């Protein structure tokens, strides 16, 4: 199978809320991939290197979530808009129940949808992010640096955030920095990031949580009926590995795979080991 190309795999789906961009690659049953958050993030950047391995078994559908500068713009938090966008996408393509891989925020979105609707996903793979801090204080270093960047978007702030994402500091190349900087500093994308990670947004979420009678999503993980594979970098400084303890114990059919010498981007930093674990889980009878 040939290596994927951005332009050759790019697709669009018109919806009543706006155009959703996605990438399609591979043959077989559909597999949905949901990216994480952060400056300059896209689904393509999160997962394109994994498409050859995953695409040998699945028709990979990498959705670009609204508010990150690729799919349609929004005037609300990208996290709030993500769940409805995923539902529109799955139903718009007539996919039926599908397996899903979610990186960080994408994993949380998948978990929340699975709690509310058991008919959406057949299996779920997460990459960090799901759960809540058990031993360490939250938020993690990577989230703190992310807030610092969206409040004061400097190149040095972006570099510090990128360095908190990985174990291998050699991964933070000038090419990566420039790619992320170009998209992260676009006015609409930066405004969207502030609605999610700005100090005012963080304070508003804290006030809302304190006043709400509704439990947080991580207190309802026991409602997920689909099998779940939690993948985690042992050296994750965004969502420390102790966060995995709660979903591992709460989700009825969950298993945990921890990757050494690995930060928040497990599917990139430990690509071969991550792909092997994920394919074994997704193709298991």
TrEMBL record:
Keywords: Hydrolase
EC number: 3.7.1.14
Coiled coil: none
Enzyme class: hydrolase
Keyword Magnesium included in the entry's annotation: no
Family annotation (InterPro entries): AB_hydrolase_1, AB_hydrolase_fold
Keyword Metal-binding annotated: no
Annotated protein name in UniProt: 2-hydroxy-6-oxonona-2,4-dienedioate hydrolase
